[in-house]
Design goal:
Keywords: Peptide transport, Protein transport, Signal, Transport
Helix content: 25-40%
Oligomer: single chain
GO molecular function, one term: peptide transmembrane transporter activity
CATH topology of the largest domain: Dipeptide-binding Protein, domain 3
CATH superfamily of the largest domain: Dipeptide-binding Protein, Domain 3
CATH class of the largest domain: Alpha Beta
Radius of gyration: 24 Å
Shape: globular
Protein name: Peptide ABC transporter substrate-binding protein
Strand content: 15-25%
CATH architecture of the largest domain: Roll
Structural class: alpha+beta
Largest sheet: 13 strands, mixed
Pfam families: SBP_bac_5
Distance between the termini: 34 Å
Organism: Marinobacter psychrophilus
Number of helices: 16
Length: 536
């Protein structure tokens, strides 16, 4: 289930996660993590990249979070919540005695301020839209007011949040970094520099940031979760070239190579026993896909799109990236609720693909364009697709462009017949199938500048999605996941995509690092859950 009974069980599951305690943790120790690039910001309302996501999660907390290493939603700063009979109002009871890093106790007024700050267009938060279900969001977004009408402080430890309609994804939104609780006085003190001087309630606090060199996180001795974090300090060294960082890790000078394993070293790490124990692999909420613009002829012909689905050799593409993925047959990744493990999808069948083209009136093939990001290995993947398409008579000219240009072309209805999403492929913001629909396959994303590059709009499936998201009761969650699964497989009957692969995440750690492997490829605290790993 996506949303389970949290009132009675959440505290135990949050404070003593079974996977984190697979071996007895040892408190203490200092570790070094390397990155090639400096961190842009540690402001939870602003940060939105894979590098700073887990850092921010270790500095801040929200009302909700996830059981470490899993997609299981649990309470965090909220001690409990109640949902109104109409499914529109969540009343959260906060934990008492939780302190910000500046020593002040966190109160319900901080929750209201933090949500309003992120929603306010002056903050320029890339996550503001996630708060659109909250009553009054439109007025804040338009600049008519600074206050969310739906957020009410009842007392110091109780806050009510009213939505415009029941929404089963709302608790997940409260687990996003964008919903982290911050103290108004610190934001006002530092202004635009709050991202360089973050103050939260998290397991760690920032104690030094020397631009271009390092960031140092120190253990929060007053953290409200007993016993964590285990590590005393984390030094994030920046400006470290990935190959050099990996060599340092092999010598024991580095504990986690944040940029992962460079392609030139991947097979060595994968195949040699002395490195095998250092590499951790895990699934992520990711799908790489080829979009087929359903509004551009001849891709507006269903049989043509089905033929393209049957023409692509996905196993060969996975080999191009050294086996770092598994072939996909549907938009949802296997780790996502709603994934239909019984769905077989389109087989790799070039002869049947040719027959479909003939039925569609394109027995002699046709010419088209394939847009791709110009960073390796994406052009090589596009070339493999190009060859597969040529085998059935389709001549696809590759347009290899900078990422921004590919995104712009995909967001213009008549520019990009096909787009390979590699380097830009969708990774879920939260573990709910709704996040894989609206922005990239739903009608709301099929707009200029949107991310639905297939320009696919099925209003019937959109309505099914709305129905699924209105299922907020605990006993409806299994039915809701099944409904979402049907939405995605029904969409595949229209073939707006060729799902190519579900890329796996690889993290490399030193021999002295411990903690369940899932913490090093955490599907939500991307990439590493620093709060629960420890030093042997």
């Amino acid at each position: 289930m996506l949303i389970r009974s949290l009132l009675a069980t959440a505290i135990a599951s949050l404070l003593t996660p079974a996977n984190a305690l697979a071996a007895e943790p040892k408190p203490g120790g200092d570790i070094i993590v390397t990155y090639q690039n400096d961190v842009a910001t540690l402001d939870p309302a602003i940060g939105y990249d894979w590098q700073n996501w887990s850092m921010i999660k270790s500095l801040f907390d929200g009302l909700m979070d996830y059981n470490p290493g899993t997609t299981e939603l649990v309470l965090d700063l909220a001690q409990s919540y109640e949902l109104s009979d109409d499914g529109k109002t969540y009343t959260f009871k906060l934990r008492e005695g939780v302190e910000f890093h500046n020593g002040r106790e966190m109160k319900a007024s901080d929750v209201k301020y933090s949500l309003e700050r992120t929603a306010n267009p002056e903050t320029q938060s890339p996550g503001a839209g996630f708060f659109s279900p909250i009553l009054g969001y439109d007025a804040v977004s338009a600049g008519d007011t600074d206050e969310l009408a739906g957020v009410t402080v009842i007392d110091d430890y109780t806050v009510a949040i009213e939505l415009t309609a029941p929404n089963a994804t709302f608790l997940h939104v409260m687990g996003l970094n964008f919903a982290s609780i911050v103290p108004r006085e610190a934001v006002e003190e530092y202004g635009k520099d709050f991202g360089k001087n973050p103050v939260g309630t998290g397991a760690y606090e920032l104690t030094d940031w020397t631009l271009g060199r390092h960031l140092i996180f120190s253990k929060n001795p007053d953290y409200f979760k007993p016993g964590v974090p285990y590590i005393d300090s984390i030094t994030f060294e920046v400006g470290q070239e990935p190959m050099v960082a990996l060599q340092r890790l092999e010598r024991g000078d580095v504990d986690i190579a944040g940029d992962g394993i460079p392609p030139a070293k991947f097979l060595q790490f994968k195949n040699e026993p002395q490195f095998e124990s250092l590499m951790v692999v895990g699934d992520q909420l990711h799908t790489g896909y080829l979009t087929l613009n359903v509004t551009i002829p001849p891709l507006d012909n269903l049989k043509v799109r089905q033929a393209i689905n049957m023409a692509i050799n996905k196993d060969r593409i996975v080999r191009i990236i050294n086996g770092r993925a598994t072939p996909a047959n549907q938009p949802l990744p296997p780790a996502m609720p709603g994934y239909d493990k019984n769905y077989e999808g389109y087989p790799f069948d070039p002869e049947q693909a040719k027959a479909l083209l003939t039925e569609a009136g394109y027995g002699d093939g046709f010419e088209t364009e394939l847009f791709v990001m110009n960073t390796d290995p994406q052009p090589r993947i596009a070339q493999a697709m190009q060859q597969d398409l040529l085998n059935i008579g389709i001549k696809a000219e590759i347009r290899s462009l900078a990422q921004a240009n590919v995104i712009a072309a995909g967001g213009a209805q008549d520019q990009a017949p096909m787009v390979w999403s590699g380097g830009m492929a969708w990774i879920a913001d939260f573990p709910d199938p709704a996040n894989f629909w609206g922005p990239i396959l739903g009608c709301e994303g099929a707009v200029p500048g949107g991310w639905n590059w297939a320009w696919y709009c099925n209003e019937e499936l959109d309505a099914m999605g709305d129905k699924a998201d209105a299922m907020v009761a605990e006993d409806q969650q299994e039915e809701r996941a099944a409904l979402w699964g049907k939405i995605f497989t029904d969409a595949m009957a229209d073939a707006p995509w060729v799902p190519i692969f579900n890329e796996q995440r690889f993290t490399v750690r030193s021999e002295r690092m411990a903690g369940d492997e899932s913490l090093y490829v955490d599907p939500v605290h991307v990439p590493v859950n620093y709060d629960y790993i420890w030093v042997k």
